[in-house]
Design brief:
Blueprint lengths: L25 H8 L9 H38 L5 E14 L4 E13 L6 E4 L2 E7 L4 E7 L2 E3 L4 E14 L2 H11 L5 E15 L2 E2 L3 E12 L8 E2 L6 E7 L1 E2 L2 E2 L1
Antiparallel strand pairs: 1-2, 1-11, 2-7, 3-6, 3-8, 4-5, 4-8, 8-9, 8-10, 10-12, 13-14
Length: 252
């Protein structure tokens, strides 16, 4: 008995077998609906590189200016050889220096200071000079001032001023120290502090104003007897000149 062959229910198309059709999965549907990813440029990195470049060029510009200033300063020093002015205490006469019963200080002192400019090519131009007369314990004895003046080349100028204090109140500690010092046979040690601003003129060039402080120490004063003024000892007095540079809140 011969077997019968029954044809398949799915017919071949164009001589090839057709692939079965299955529904799309969730992953395929999600991938078809998602837009194509395009990488964006990194803006933060660009801004960071710009900041670094600006900082670098600013630093180089500042260093260049400092180098030019140093070269200019060196050239001025070689050409003019500037030296600091010198100050000495030429005289100090005490007419009145006493403390009354109310611990108030009364002072009348005549001061003479000699200023010397040792430079041949530099002129100093001074603003008014404030004077503070202090003890070694920094007790303020009196105040005064010198007027502004122009200090010429190789010039010596004598400055004179009156230092006064009327009914200046002292605390108990300062009053006790000052009374003891005034009774001492060795005299009352004093120091003078001068503060001003000065600029230098070298030919047609003028520098900006700089702060200058002069401190003179080694002065010994005595209380005057009767009506004659007492001359203080200034033979051992020495003055130190300091230029003071102020940057914002700091003073050098």
């Amino acid at each position: 008995m011969n077997d019968r062959v029954y044809p398949s229910s799915k017919q071949a198309t164009n001589g090839t077998a057709a692939n079965p059709a299955f529904p799309a999965t969730k992953a395929q549907l999600y991938g078809a609906s998602r837009p194509l990813y395009r990488p964006q440029p990194n803006r933060h990195r660009y801004r960071r590189s710009c900041c670094c470049s600006c900082c670098l060029w600013t630093t180089m510009a500042i260093l260049g200016l400092i180098l030019l200033a140093a070269i200019a300063g060196a050239m001025l020093y070689v050409l003019y050889r500037p030296h600091r002015p010198a100050f000495t205490v030429s005289s100090l006469k005490v007419s009145t220096l006493n403390i009354n019963s109310a611990s108030k200080l009364v002072t009348n002192i005549n001061l003479g200071v000699t200023a010397k400019n040792p430079n041949k090519k530099v002129v100093y131009i001074y603003d008014p000079i404030t004077i503070s007369l202090l003890t070694n314990d920094d007790i303020d004895i009196g105040d005064g001032s010198f007027g502004s003046f122009v200090h010429g080349k190789k010039n010596t100028t004598i400055l004179k001023a009156s230092i006064t204090s009327t009914n200046q109140e002292l605390d108990n500690t300062s009053s006790g120290k000052l009374k003891t010092a005034l009774k001492s046979k060795n005299g009352l040690p004093l120091k003078i502090k001068l503060d001003t601003k000065v600029k230098a003129k070298m030919g047609a060039l003028k520098t900006p104003k700089l702060r200058i402080r002069v401190i003179c120490e080694g002065i010994k004063a005595t209380v005057p007897k009767r009506k004659s003024a007492a001359t203080a000892s200034t033979s051992n007095a020495k003055c130190k000149v300091d230029f003071r540079l102020k940057i914002w809140k700091w003073t050098f």
